[in-house]
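Entry, Tuesday afternoon. Goal for today is a structural model of the target with guanosine-5'-triphosphate bound, before we commit to ordering more compound. Inputs were pasted exactly as handed over by J.K., no edits. I checked the ligand SMILES twice against the vendor sheet because last time a stereocentre got dropped in transcription.
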Amino acid sequence: MLQDTISAVSSPRGKGGVAVIRISGSNALQIAERMFCPSGSLPLQATPRKARLGSLLAPTASIDWSPVDQGLALYFPSPASFTGEDVIEFHCHGGALLTETLLGATFAAGARPATAGEFTRRAFLNGKLKLHQAEALGLMLEAETEEQLLLASSGLRENSPLTKALNALYDDLVLLLSTAYARIDYPDEDLADLSPEEVLTSLQKISTALSALLKSFRTGHAVVEGIQTTICGRPNVGKSSIYNRLIGENKAIVTDIPGTTRDILEHTAQCGEVLLRLSDTAGIRDLQSADPVEQIGIEKARQKLADAELILAVFDGSEALTDADTALIASLKATLTDNPRAYLLFVLNKSDKPAAVSPEQLNQAFGKAVPCVAVSAQSGEGWSNLVSLIQKTFLEGLLDLSQNAIIMNARQNACLVSALEAVRRAEKSLSLGFTFDIVSSDLEEALESIRQVDGRSVNEDIVSSIFAHFCVGK
Ligand SMILES: Nc1nc2c(ncn2[C@@H]2O[C@H](COP(=O)(O)OP(=O)(O)OP(=O)(O)O)[C@@H](O)[C@H]2O)c(=O)[nH]1
Ligand SMILES: [Mg+2]
């Protein structure tokens, strides 16, 4: 499969100033010679990595191969190209029909249509990109926030903090394994390498590094996927006003009539460097005092709490706590038992008015201390405290996205969790005095998990699923 030559339009479809057609594979140059006539005497082959002006030819319905455009061609000989294969790029005028006609010409000259992500997949298979770098590239193409872009561009660098951290773990594990194997193969020899105590110290160093890396997933997840956030509270406390201020638009209806919001409203919001996937919900109160439509809304609000990662429990700080508030606080205790990953934050809204509730009262009702911020959704008072509390919680102090090694997806996280489990098993075996052959099988497992993160060893189905998310032409 890898020997065939693929082509695709690498710029977005539709009308544009310039379009880029990319060809990769062993016949790329031959195809370019069929469809590109360079100006000047030198053939394209003689000028690698240089933009050459010339005529672009294509067969049309009425005439055989003939010039259809003037454009540029670039020839990147293997292996110094994006895919590691011979690559040709044509830059033509960006007319939709013109681009399709030229793409058709590449097929007529021997290329086949590239599948989604196939150029990047070839780059990975030819060792030009590690798997986690390819994932960073995927994030770069999808990035909608500045933070996602920063994380992606850092992850894409050849010497990214994540690559360095993975390489260090890999090298340490290989060194330990070679020690273990030397001891298995030559048990009677007085080997000058690591003693069991030194191996244990190295294992502890590896597990500390793995734990630190795993902690960074909280940040990666907050930046890449966003935090599922549910705003809840009794009616009229200002949930929708908080939602509107967070998203920066007046999307939710705000009135002084309790029970205004019925359906769940959803939107993303950038909160400092954290992306929130926000849900505004119906005010939760005793079902008997709600009409049938509101009752459905209350049920939906409760369901939204079950899978939240962040719960903003809102209270009207200008009014004494009501029965509905205390009932909600009691139900939140049960919610956190069922959904322990949720992070609860109390928001005392309407701080522009005289305070009638204190954080201590809320803590007392809840039974333990919960972080609390006083804000006014109306005036914006206290807003920066809310943003920095959320940011501090989810970024774990890893604010420099370009400098810290940050795991950016669940696949990388799962591999590193397996690596840590295996290293911990090895530590335990060693401290219990087990032989090196037991320890080495755990170390092999840890090494295999690291190999899966960067793609040194990875299952074909996983590779296919990663590249299937890319667009055609990438
Ligand atoms: N003074 C003051 N009034 C506020 C503030 N936030 C919201 N309000 C007012 O409180 C009332 C209710 O606001 P909403 O945002 O609709 O409250 P809600 O919790 O979404 O209400 P339901 O959807 O009915 O559950 C409106 O009259 C708002 O203008 C605030 O910070 N200060
Ligand atoms: Mg509302």
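The chain has three domains: 6-125, 161-221+405-455, 226-377.
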